[in-house]
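Problem statement: downstream parser choked on a complex file, so we are re-checking the raw output for the protoporphyrin IX containing FE run. The parser issue turned out to be on our end (a line-ending mismatch), but while we're here, posting the original submission so the record is complete.
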Amino acid sequence: MNNLLRMVAVLLVLLMGVTASQAQSVRPPGNAVNLDDGIEPGPPNTLGDLSDSDFWRNYRGGDPNDPQQIIGPRPDGVVLTTTGQHWRALRENYIRKYAGWAPLIVIGILAVFYVLIGPMRIKSGRSGKTLSRFNLTQRVSHWFMAAVFILLGISGLIILLGRPLIAPFLGKEVNSIMTSAAMQGHNLFGPLFIVALVWMFIKFVRGNFFQWVDLKWIFKLGGFFGGHVSSHEFNFGEKSWFWMVTIVGTVISVTGVLLLFPWLVEDLRILQLSTILHGLGAVGLISVLFGHIYVGTIGMEGSLDSMLKGEVDEHWAKEHHDLWYEKVTGKSASETAKEEEPS
Ligand code: HEM
């Protein structure tokens, strides 16, 4: 018993020693300056007419709500800008929150369209005779672009929407692994997109300049109002898609290169703007892509043949690209249609 009491006493003494040494360590060191010791603060009025808060406000970038801070040249005396907070807020509160909805809305509209109106059939049925539409290099450049774009689209959406969409369901661990893998894939395939874009532009630009006949396509909304619309090799919808891929694709490429090699720019705000343009451009293209895939597959009978086999049915060509049909065959689309009508 005596031994036990002795042990408890020793433990108590040790414990008090540790606590006392810790308490000592938070005391100010002996050489610390103590203003009560009669040392004068610095000369008065060193900031001139500026208050302390004005000084610090200017130091860290002026008024954070001033648009000048976001896009204008950096004002004199500003050392730090807080625009990163604006871009972050824009990305987190708007792009990340709503971007996923755009492709879903397009898919919803297409589904309703398919159920209510159904696919566009070749009205006169297949003729069995075909016309050559795209050569092998055109088709390879298209499918190369499609493969690269889809890989970039999936990996990009995982990076952008993993936190709100994957983490709550599969857990943070899974989201972290998927996002890291997506990031590696995205960085790898990004440069290939630029190659695909240039190649596809060279291969398809010839038939994609806007012409007067495209105005009729717009007024008749591609044939939904006012019946048949004439079209050359590509109609207004296809030309718009081509130029959207070219222009938005260029924006995505340039901003992507800057994000991959951030030391190329000195002003951080250019990188902040790049993240926003890159994300918005990509989400826009992905959304419209669903419309393109729809028309290229289940939405229009006979369309996919052109990109798979390079050939299209003559009746398909007459119904959708009559002016192109006339150019490549030298025959009139309306007369041959009449000749083929059952008497
Ligand atoms: C996997 C999904 C895709 C399918 C099923 C598909 C299908 C098609 C088809 C059938 C055509 C030929 C249309 C015609 O003969 O008039 C075409 C043309 C085209 N596609 Fe795709 N495509 C896909 C993905 C993509 C992607 C990812 C892009 C670019 C980001 C793209 C860009 C184009 C362009 C620029 C044209 C030529 C239209 C023009 O020059 O106006 N496609 N596609």
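For whoever reads this later: Residues 15-25 have pLDDT under 50 and may be disordered.
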